[in-house]
Amino acid sequence: xxxxxxxxxxxxxxxxxxxxxxxxxxxxxxxxxxxxxxxxxxxxxxxxxxxxxxxxxxxxxxxxxxxxxxxxxxxxxxxxxxxxxxxxxxxxxxxxxxxxxxxxxx
Length: 106
Prior knowledge:
- This protein has one domain (5-90): Up-down Bundle (Methane Monooxygenase Hydroxylase, Chain G, domain 1), CATH 1.20.58.
- Helix content is 79%, strand content 0%.
- The protein has helices at 5-41, 44-64, 69-88, 100-105.
- The protein is elongated and about 60 Å long.
- The mean pLDDT is 89.
């Protein structure tokens, strides 16, 4: 535990910011799930509407410094592809995740 007054204050700030960041990330993940659910159901209008909400949530998280701007761009790019495919009536298969250097070489 911190001993000096400035360290105590910094600890309190870190705890507050951690809760704020966790709430923001949770809201972003919920938005992602809503978009994925709408695209899998095939409802193009709902998926577009949910995607617009996701874009706003992601941009706000970037502005607050909760997530990196490249992560937000990656999320928006991947989900926009799915939303466009859903509006055309097709489905997009997600790429299999790779882990480690061996998977990248293979």
